[in-house]
UniProtKB/TrEMBL annotation:
Domain Peptidase M20 dimerisation: 266-358
CDD domains: M20_IAA_Hyd
InterPro entries linked to this entry: Amidohydrolase, Bact_exopeptidase_dim_dom, ILR1-like_Hyd, Peptidase_M20, Peptidase_M20_dimer
Entry's family note: Belongs to the peptidase M20 family.
UniProt keyword list: Hydrolase, Manganese, Membrane, Signal, Transmembrane, Transmembrane helix
PANTHER family listed in its UniProt record: IAA-AMINO ACID HYDROLASE ILR1-LIKE 6 (PTHR11014:SF62), PEPTIDASE M20 FAMILY MEMBER (PTHR11014)
Gene3D superfamilies: 3.30.70.360, Zn peptidases (3.40.630.10)
Keyword Coiled coil: no
Stretches that traverse the bilayer: 7-27
Pfam families, sorted: M20_dimer (PF07687), Peptidase_M20 (PF01546)
Species of origin: Gossypium raimondii
Name under which the protein is recorded: Peptidase M20 dimerisation domain-containing protein
Length: 475
């Protein structure tokens, strides 16, 4: 028989952890509403009761000392506030800005992102986050959570552009002719920041977050190669963000269905028979054939496409040489085509080739058409899954407030995130970086492109919340 003292001991062991955890939730609610006056006390208690949650353990020397306290079994405003609070801690803000600036100073083009990848892996090592490397030459697939299902992915692109930076500031590109002129440096920093938050809250994750750092979005279809190397293994949904100068800093924008167009390029060579311009009947004129093809190409959209299904075919190059007294043997034309659905996109590709070849035949010439498929320049449309879009909208609204989410119109730009969206349900969204005071108003691919760095912790928080809450709501 057990003594009375033994019963007391057993009951104490059972109930003390329960009361301790609830006391921590109470303390956290005080710190959330009353500022930081209890932070030191709170950290001391939480570090001793839940050491696994601390990001300062082991090799990680850059992480926050604040530990998540709520259980978030059912997501509520406290959960969102905790994630945003972690992201906006002063030490974290300075760290994420410093990370982005290092990447900005050392831009690397598609499939050359070795130093960027090395920097990311260094930060992951400090946080004791496991990863696979390399995928698609310089890419990384990291993971945080239980290691089991469900699996959700968040992605950032790493490559820069062959542009000479014209912005004069302390952290200007140090590499001549290369610049992060599309915000991928910010994308990487925000995703590393999200990984840091998720590692902090790993004990709360009800599954696994796959964190994807991808090369070559601008050229080379890095996403396609990442998928081929296993980046989406076990993944059931994926999300990504792109900075936007069209929206004020921190505003989230997206839409259901088609968001970005599919994009392709073509180059056609018309071949005829060379001859003197004064005796055209002795030649077979490829200039006439190419000219007729240019006119006929415009009829594909204007006469064959549904006016409510936006499509574009544009001829942007025409080269028949520079001899004014000679009909050339060949003429080369080229251009681009865009559409918002896969069916329309690939129909355009087929009709462009048919029109060019047949028009060449009409004028006794022959033609070949190259769509650069071997060079991976074809990008399908980026189409948001309705349910994934609603998830982004819900997260952004709850995290940042309803005024900070906008439904945006589709754009004719293209993104290789589209390859992911063809494999698993996906949602792509924008985060605003526009700040007239700072001069952050220029479009991507401009030598004057810059961002408002205040967006970085916000983007990290949105990334992390999208992933954690997705797992929370799948359980």
């Amino acid at each position: 028989m057990y003594s009375l003292k033994s019963y007391v001991l057993v009951v104490s062991l059972i109930f003390i952890p329960f009361f301790a955890n609830n006391f921590l939730v109470f303390v956290n609610s005080i710190t959330s509403s009353s500022g930081n006056q209890y932070t030191t006390f709170f950290n001391a208690i939480s570090s001793s009761t839940n050491p696994k949650a601390s990001l300062n353990s082991g090799k990680n020397q850059t992480t926050s000392s604040l530990i998540s306290s709520s259980f978030c079994d059912v997501w509520d405003v406290t959960c969102s506030e905790e994630v945003l609070g972690l992201a906006q801690e002063p030490d974290n803000v300075e760290w994420i800005k410093g990370l982005r600036r290092k990447i900005h100073e050392n831009p690397e083009l598609a499939f050359e992102e070795y130093e960027t990848s090395k920097l990311v892996r260094s930060e992951l090592d400090r946080m004791d986050i496991e990863y696979r490397y390399p995928l698609a030459k310089t890419g990384i697939r990291a993971w945080v959570g239980t290691g089991g299902p469900p699996f959700v992915a968040i992605r950032a692109d790493m490559d820069a552009l062959p542009i000479q930076e014209a912005v004069e500031w302390e952290h200007k590109s140090k590499v001549a002719g290369k610049m992060h002129a599309c915000g991928h440096d910010a994308h990487v920093a925000m995703l590393v920041g999200a990984a840091k938050i998720l590692k902090n809250r790993e004990h709360l994750l009800k599954g696994t977050v796959i964190v994807i750092f991808q090369p070559a979005e601008e050229a080379g279809n890095g996403a396609k190669r990442m998928i081929g190397d296993g980046a989406l293994e076990n993944v059931e949904a994926i999300f990504a963000v792109h900075v936007s100068h069209e929206h004020p800093t921190g505003i989230i924008g997206s839409r259901p269905g088609p968001l970005l167009a599919g994009c392709g390029f073509f180059r056609a060579v018309f071949s005829g028979r060379k001859g003197l311009a004064g005796s055209p009947h002795h030649s077979v004129d490829p200039i006439l054939a190419a000219s007729a093809a240019v006119i006929s190409l415009q009829g594909i959209v204007s006469r064959e496409s549904n006016p409510l299904d936006s499509q574009v075919v544009s001829v942007t190059s025409f080269n028949g040489g520079n001899n004014l007294d000679m009909i050339p043997e060949t003429v080369v034309i080229g251009g681009t085509f865009r559409a918002f659905s896969n069916a329309s996109f690939y129909n355009l590709l087929q009709r462009i080739e048919e029109v060019i070849v047949e028009q060449a035949n009409v004028f006794r010439c022959w033609a070949t058409v190259d769509f650069f498929e071997k060079e991976s320049t074809i990008y399908p449309p980026t189409v948001n899954d309705n349910r994934m879009y609603e998830h982004v909208k819900k997260v952004a609204t709850d995290l940042l407030g309803p005024p900070n989410f906008r439904v945006v119109p589709p754009m004719m730009g293209a993104e290789d995130f589209s390859f992911y969206s063809q494999v698993v349900p996906a949602a792509f969204y924008y985060i605003g970086v526009r700040n007239e005071t700072l001069g952050s108003t220029h479009t991507g691919h401009s030598p004057y492109f810059m961002i408002d760095e205040d967006v970085l912790p916000i983007g990290a928080a949105v990334h992390a919340t999208i992933a954690e809450r997705y797992l929370n709501e799948q359980g």
